[in-house]
């Protein structure tokens, strides 16, 4: 049975973590391979009515006890510019607290964690870490900002393998792909304290009609967005083909080729050809 409030939906993802900072700290610690003792969520005040806006962003911005800024975001689809968008956003976040007279070394370390429900890179690795290095030597330019990508379709371990490997980061990555009650039961059976709590939160959300309505609205908006982008892409392709045929027709006309022949080759009407 399909869940209405599923962890793979960004609005549910954000609600789980903003209402349960201990779960967020657990995941972030695993992602960064360090223990996160305390963190402060800086943007947990998005109003419910914003959840169904077509292009609204539902990231989670936190600050650790050590002053690091960490942004966590789940993305369901690639709009074609995600690499550039990620670099821009991380750079903007990194420089956001730089004020006149402040030393560059005082800028807080910044990490953006992107959980992707699609494949982005050519590599088969499910985890990719990006930071500036010197091409010729491999020397790190700075360790003060980086982007971590998790591509869930590339995660190689299934539930049975996870039971053997005890890969806790893998538990979370699998949890983020859950869309059905059966899949929710499977991750619950991993018998991990934090994951069990996350599963319980999801079940509570699915019993809450208000949260179910928010999730429905958000998923409808997401599907409409995908349809709009697909339609725009289709129109762009069609326009490109039309312009190509117009160029072909113009070339054929300069060579004094018969109108009826050009019609057959290009698919353009006689009126369109005469207008050229």
Any chance you could write out the topology, listing elements then pairs?
Elements: H1 10-18, H2 21-32, E1 39-41, E2 60-64, E3 69-75, H3 82-95, E4 110-116, E5 127-130, E6 145-151, H4 159-165, H5 168-175, H6 181-188, H7 193-206, H8 209-254, H9 259-266, H10 270-275
Parallel strand pairs: 3-4, 4-6
Antiparallel strand pairs: 1-2, 2-3, 5-6
Helix pairs in contact: 8-9
What does this structure look like?
This protein has 276 residues and is an alpha/beta fold. Helix content is 48%, strand content 12%. The chain has a six-stranded mixed beta sheet, with helices on both faces. It is extended.
Largest sheet: 6 strands, mixed
Residue share in helices?
40-55%
Structural domains: how many: 2
Distance N terminus to C terminus? Answer: 58 Å
Task: Write down the secondary-structure element order.
Answer: HHEEEHEEEHHHHHHH
Shape, per Cα inertia axes: extended
Mean pLDDT: 84
Task: Determine Rg (CA atoms, Å).
Answer: 25 Å
Structure summary, number of beta strands: 6
């Amino acid at each position: 049975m399909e869940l209405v409030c599923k962890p793979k939906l960004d609005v549910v993802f954000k609600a789980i973590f903003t209402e349960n900072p201990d779960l967020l700290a657990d995941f972030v610690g695993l992602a960064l391979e360090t223990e996160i003792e305390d963190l402060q969520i800086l943007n947990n005040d998005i109003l419910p009515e914003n959840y169904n806006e077509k292009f609204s962003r539902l990231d989670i911005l936190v600050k650790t006890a050590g002053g690091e800024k960490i942004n966590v975001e789940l993305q369901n689809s690639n709009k074609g510019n995600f690499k550039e968008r990620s670099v821009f956003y991380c750079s903007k976040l990194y420089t956001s607290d730089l004020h006149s007279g402040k030393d560059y070394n005082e800028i807080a370390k910044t990490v953006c964690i992107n959980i992707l429900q699609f494949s982005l890179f050519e590599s088969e690795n499910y985890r990719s870490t990006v930071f500036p290095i010197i091409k010729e030597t491999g020397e790190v330019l700075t360790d003060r900002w980086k982007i971590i990508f998790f591509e869930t379709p590339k995660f190689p371990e299934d539930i049975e393998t996870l039971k053997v490997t005890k890969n806790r980061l893998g538990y979370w990555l699998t949890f983020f792909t859950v869309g059905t009650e059966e899949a929710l039961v499977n991750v619950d059976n991993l018998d991990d304290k934090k994951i069990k709590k996350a599963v319980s939160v999801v079940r509570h959300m699915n019993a809450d009609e208000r949260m179910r309505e928010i999730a429905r609205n958000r998923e409808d908006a997401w599907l409409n967005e995908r349809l709009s982008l697909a339609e725009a892409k289709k129109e762009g392709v069609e326009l490109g083909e039309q312009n190509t045929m117009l160029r072909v027709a113009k070339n054929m006309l300069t060579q004094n080729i018969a109108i009826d022949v050009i019609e057959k080759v290009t698919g353009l009407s006689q009126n369109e050809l005469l207008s050229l």
